[in-house]
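TICKET: design request
STATUS: open
ATTACHED STRUCTURE:
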C-alpha cells in the first residue's frame, strides 16, 4: 500500500507544481448503508491527499483531482480531509479556477459507456495518443506528462492561461480530434472547461464489473519531463486556427457528370488517394490523407470532408496549401483540362450535352532500343559526375567546408584534380561556375577567404544563404533559409543563372524542409528525388555535405546521419576522415560508387595559408592505402557509443517494425555489442511485441517508440523506476500489477 501512496503523491506533485489547493473527488463510492455517493475534500497537504485517495480507491468507481489552479479559499470547505457530500453540496466549478496550468488531451477508446476497454481498444487509444504526441513534437511543442488512465491515454501539456482562454483549448482539442480520431479511439473535446477533473494516477479505474477481457486497471503516471516547459500562446493559436469550417453548402462542383451523389470514397480509391483514417465529424465524415495532393505533406495535414448535407471540402493545414479547395483537389488528381471538359459536357440539369471521344491510350514505359546510348560525363572521375548526386560525409570540424572550397576553386579555374591531371584534356570540360547553398558560415569572413586562398575565380562562385519568401502573416517578402524540396525552384534558378557545373549543399540536414523526417526513408527519398532530377535537367554535379552519426565502428554506409535512404538515392559517396595514427592527417575515401569503380583514397591536410595564417587550405599528399571502412573503425569513447547505437537503431526501425533477431544480428555485424544495443533500445523506448503464436511459430518484433533520455530510462522521472515492463513505471513490488496484464504493449 505504501507504494500506491507514493505513486499518488508524486503524481499530484507533478500535476500541481505550484503546491496549491487541490480537490480530491471519488465517484460512486460504495457505502455500508444507502446508495453510492460522491466523496470530496480539499488539500494543500499532498501526503494526506495521497493517503486518503489510496483508501477511497478500494470503494469508488474512480478517484479524480482537479487539474487547474483552484481558489485557495476553497480549502475551508473540507481542509485536508474528504467525506461523502450530499446533493446540493458544492464542488469545484469553473468560476473557482484562477488559472489554467495544463492543456489536457484525453484519448479514450470508443466503447459502450460504463465499462472498461478491452486490450485491443486500449491499444487503439494509445496509437492515437502517440500520433498526437509525435505531431506536436514536430510542431515544436515540449514533451507532455503522459498518463495511462486504464482505458486510454492522457497527454498533459504545461500552459499558462487564464480561465477565459478555455475557448482556445477547446479549439485545439477539436483540431486534434479532426486530425487524429479513428473509429476506435477519439480525442475528448469536452475536457477543456477550467474545473475539469482528471483521473488520479495510482488509483484504480473500476468502471463496470471486472471481467477477463475488460479488467479493472490502475491508472499510472508513465513519464514527465524533468523541466516544465510551457506551450506558448502563439503555438496554441496557430493550432486552433487550423479547424476547418463546420458547415459547407453543396454546389454543382460536388456532383459528378450524371448529377448523382458523388461517391467520394470510390473516387479517391480510383484516383489512388491513400487515406490514413476516416471518422465521423459533425454529422458527416472526414478523411485524413497520407499525403496532401499539392505539396506532398505527410503529417496528416491533408484532408477531405463529406458534410452531412452532401457537400464536399478538401484542404491542407500548411500555410503553403491554405488556399486550396475541393476543386483544386480534383484538379490535382485529374488535371484542369479534364475538369474543364467535364464542365462543358454537363448542362445545368446534369444531362450530357457532348460525348467525349475516347482518347488513345498512352504508351507506358520507354523502349530501350529507342534510347540513344550516352557516356557518363565526369567533373571529377569517380567522385563527381554531371547530372548525378554525390554525398560527402565527415565528422564536424574535419574540414569538409574547406575541402569543398578547394573543389570549387578547381572547377572555377579549370585546374586539374590532384589524382588525375589528364582527366579532362579540354579546359571547357573542366571549367565552370559553382553554386553553394549554405547558411552556417559567413560569406565575408569565412567563405570568401577560403575560396581566395584556394585560388578560386570569385566571379564564378555564387553563395545562396537565403531565398525570398512571402510571409503571409506579415504581408511582406522576407528572407528564408533555403530548404529542400520546398525551395528547389529558387535553387534551380541560381544554377541556371550561373550555368553552374557544381552545386554544393552544406550541410544537408539544415536545408531539409521541416516536415521531412531525416530518419524516415520515405521522407528523404521524397525530398532528394527532386534534387536528383534537378541535377539531371541542369547537367550539374551535386555535392551534398552530411555529418557522421556518433556510432562507433560498424559498416561505413551506416555511419552517415539520418536514414540509409540518403545513401540509396545518391550515386557516389565520399568520406573525409582522420587517420588512426595522426589526428592532423586526413583521407578522402570512396564509400559508394554505383556508376563506376571506387576511386582511390587521397591523403591531405588542412594547413594555414601562407598569405593568411588564420585561413585554412587543402594540402594534397598523394594517395593512401586507407579505405573509408578503416577511417570509421577507430575506437571511440564509450560515452558516445550508446548515442551512436541509438542513432543506428532508430535508422533501422524508421520504416516500421522489424524482427528483433534480425536487428540484433545486424547490430553485431555493425560492431555494436549486446550490452550497448540493450541500453540504446531502452534509451529510444523501443517496444517489443510477440507475433505468430507460441513456440517456434512466433517471434519478437521491435518498433520505434518514444525517445527518452538514457538517464530517465534508467531512473525514471522524479525517482520512478521505469525499467522493465513498459506498462509499469513503478518497481514490480509497487502493488499496482493486476493478474493477466499483458507484458508487451505499445505505449504512446
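STATUS: resolved
RESOLUTION: sequence designed for all positions
ATTACHED SEQUENCE:
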Amino acid at each position: 500500500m505504501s507504494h500506491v501512496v507514493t505513486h499518488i503523491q508524486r503524481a499530484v506533485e507533478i500535476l500541481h507544481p505550484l503546491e496549491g489547493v487541490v480537490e480530491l473527488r471519488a465517484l460512486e463510492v460504495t457505502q455500508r448503508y444507502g446508495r453510492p455517493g460522491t466523496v470530496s475534500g480539499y488539500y494543500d497537504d499532498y501526503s494526506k491527499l495521497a493517503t486518503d485517495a489510496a483508501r477511497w480507491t478500494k470503494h469508488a468507481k474512480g478517484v479524480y483531482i482537479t487539474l487547474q489552479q483552484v481558489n485557495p479559499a476553497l480549502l475551508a470547505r473540507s481542509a485536508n480531509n474528504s467525506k461523502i457530500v450530499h446533493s446540493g453540496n458544492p464542488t469545484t466549478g469553473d468560476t473557482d479556477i484562477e488559472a489554467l496550468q495544463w492543456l489536457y488531451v484525453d484519448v479514450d477508446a470508443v466503447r459502450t459507456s460504463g465499462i472498461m476497454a478491452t486490450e485491443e481498444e486500449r491499444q487503439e487509444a494509445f496509437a492515437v495518443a502517440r500520433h498526437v504526441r509525435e505531431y506536436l513534437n514536430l510542431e515544436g511543442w515540449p514533451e507532455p506528462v503522459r498518463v495511462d488512465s486504464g482505458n486510454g491515454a492522457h497527454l498533459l501539456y504545461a500552459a499558462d492561461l487564464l480561465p477565459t482562454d478555455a475557448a482556445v483549448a477547446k479549439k485545439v482539442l477539436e483540431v486534434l480530434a479532426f486530425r487524429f480520431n479513428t473509429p476506435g479511439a477519439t480525442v475528448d473535446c469536452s475536457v477543456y472547461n477550467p474545473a475539469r477533473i482528471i483521473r488520479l494516477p495510482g488509483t484504480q479505474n473500476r468502471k463496470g464489473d471486472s471481467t477477463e477481457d475488460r479488467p479493472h486497471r490502475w491508472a499510472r503516471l508513465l513519464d514527465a519531463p524533468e523541466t516544465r516547459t510551457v506551450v506558448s500562446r502563439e503555438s496554441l493559436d496557430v493550432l486552433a486556427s487550423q479547424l476547418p469550417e463546420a458547415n459547407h453548402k453543396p454546389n454543382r462542383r460536388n456532383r459528378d457528370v450524371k448529377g448523382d451523389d458523388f461517391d467520394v470514397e470510390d473516387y479517391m480509391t480510383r484516383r489512388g488517394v491513400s487515406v490514413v483514417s476516416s471518422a465521423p465529424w459533425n454529422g458527416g465524415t472526414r478523411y485524413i490523407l497520407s499525403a496532401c495532393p499539392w505539396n506532398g505533406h505527410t503529417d496528416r495535414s491533408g484532408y477531405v470532408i463529406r458534410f452531412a448535407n452532401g457537400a464536399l471540402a478538401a484542404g491542407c493545414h500548411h500555410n503553403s496549401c491554405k488556399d486550396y479547395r475541393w476543386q483544386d483537389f480534383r484538379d490535382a488528381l485529374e488535371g484542369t483540362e479534364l475538369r474543364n471538359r467535364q464542365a462543358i459536357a454537363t448542362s445545368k440539369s446534369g444531362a450530357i450535352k457532348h460525348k467525349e471521344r475516347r482518347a488513345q491510350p498512352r504508351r507506358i514505359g520507354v523502349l530501350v532500343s529507342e534510347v540513344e546510348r550516352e557516356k557518363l560525363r565526369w567533373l571529377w572521375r569517380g567522385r563527381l559526375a554531371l547530372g548525378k548526386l554525390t554525398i560527402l560525409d565527415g565528422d564536424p570540424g574535419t574540414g569538409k567546408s574547406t575541402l569543398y572550397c578547394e573543389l570549387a576553386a578547381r572547377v572555377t579555374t579549370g585546374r586539374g584534380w590532384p589524382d588525375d591531371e589528364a582527366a579532362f584534356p579540354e579546359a571547357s570540360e573542366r571549367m565552370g561556375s559553382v553554386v553553394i547553398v549554405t547558411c552556417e558560415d559567413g560569406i565575408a569572413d569565412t567563405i570568401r577567404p577560403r575560396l581566395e586562398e584556394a585560388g578560386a575565380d570569385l566571379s564564378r562562385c555564387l553563395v545562396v544563404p537565403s531565398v525570398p519568401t512571402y510571409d503571409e502573416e506579415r504581408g511582406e517578402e522576407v528572407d528564408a533559409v533555403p530548404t529542400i524540396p520546398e525551395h528547389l525552384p529558387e535553387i534551380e534558378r541560381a544554377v541556371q543563372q550561373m550555368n553552374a557545373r557544381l552545386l554544393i549543399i552544406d550541410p544537408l540536414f539544415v536545408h531539409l524542409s521541416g516536415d521531412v523526417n531525416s530518419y524516415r526513408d520515405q521522407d528523404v527519398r521524397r525530398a532528394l528525388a527532386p534534387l536528383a532530377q534537378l541535377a539531371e535537367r541542369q547537367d550539374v554535379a551535386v555535392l551534398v555535405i552530411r555529418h557522421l552519426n556518433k556510432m562507433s565502428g560498424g559498416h561505413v554506409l551506416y555511419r552517415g546521419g539520418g536514414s540509409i535512404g540518403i545513401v540509396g538515392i545518391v550515386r557516389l559517396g565520399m568520406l573525409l576522415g582522420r587517420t588512426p595514427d595522426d589526428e592532423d592527417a586526413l583521407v578522402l575515401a570512396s564509400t559508394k560508387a554505383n556508376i563506376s569503380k571506387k576511386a582511390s583514397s587521397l591523403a591531405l591536410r588542412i594547413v594555414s595559408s601562407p598569405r593568411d595564417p588564420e585561413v585554412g587550405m587543402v594540402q594534397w599528399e598523394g594517395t593512401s592505402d586507407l579505405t573509408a571502412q578503416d577511417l570509421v573503425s577507430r575506437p571511440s569513447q564509450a560515452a558516445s557509443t550508446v548515442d551512436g547505437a541509438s542513432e543506428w537503431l532508430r535508422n533501422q526501425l524508421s520504416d516500421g517494425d522489424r524482427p528483433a533477431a534480425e536487428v540484433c544480428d545486424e547490430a553485431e555485424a555493425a560492431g555494436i555489442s549486446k550490452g550497448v544495443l540493450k541500453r540504446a533500445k531502452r534509451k529510444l523506448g523501443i517496444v517489443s511485441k510477440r507475433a505468430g503464436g507460441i513456440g517456434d511459430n512466433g517471434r519478437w518484433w521491435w518498433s520505434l517508440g518514444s525517445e527518452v533520455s538514457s538517464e530517465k530510462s534508467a531512473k525514471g522521472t522524479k525517482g520512478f523506476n521505469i525499467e522493465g515492463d513498459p506498462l509499469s513505471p513503478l518497481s514490480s513490488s509497487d502493488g499496482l500489477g493486476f493478474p493477466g496484464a499483458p507484458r508487451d504493449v505499445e505505449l504512446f
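CLOSING REMARK: Residues 251-260, 336-359, 635-640, 706-746 have pLDDT under 50 and may be disordered. The first strand starts at residue 22 and ends at 29.
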